[in-house]
Specification:
By secondary structure, the protein is α+β, with helices and mostly antiparallel strands. The protein contains 3 helices and 4 strands. The longest helix is centred in the C-terminal third of the chain and has 24 residues, at 89-112.
């Protein structure tokens, strides 16, 4: 857990450290009524600076395309998502219906041209 403060607490970050990397998992930020302030960006920037100055080789924001991640990052990786399911009659039926729908859509597109 990392706390960023300037008098009052600005934000808290919950991170995992593994093999020289910091993985940002969850955060809590204290917002004020002044919309010009960006406590979330300040918290994340301070956390990245702290992690890198502590000798960690990388700070990973994990999945999502949030604006602060685009603002603070220097690169990105493509994630591959895989779903594993046990074979069952229900899964077979759903896949058969999807193939049938795809076949009908292709046929409709061919006939409408």
């Amino acid at each position: 857990v990392l706390r960023v403060s300037a008098g009052d607490v600005i934000g808290l970050l919950y991170m995992f450290m593994y093999r020289g990397k910091a993985y940002f998992y969850q955060s809590g930020v204290h917002y004020s009524s002044d919309k010009r302030l960006s406590p979330g960006i300040v918290t994340m920037a301070c956390a990245v600076d702290y992690c890198l100055s502590s000798g960690l080789r990388e700070a990973d924001f994990l999945a999502s395309d949030a604006q602060y991640k685009k603002s603070l990052s220097t690169g990105c990786r493509t994630l591959e998502w895989v779903i594993l399911q046990r074979p069952s009659w229900k899964l077979w039926t759903v896949e058969a219906m999807r193939r049938l729908r795809s076949k009908w859509r292709r046929r409709l597109l061919r006939n409408s041209s």
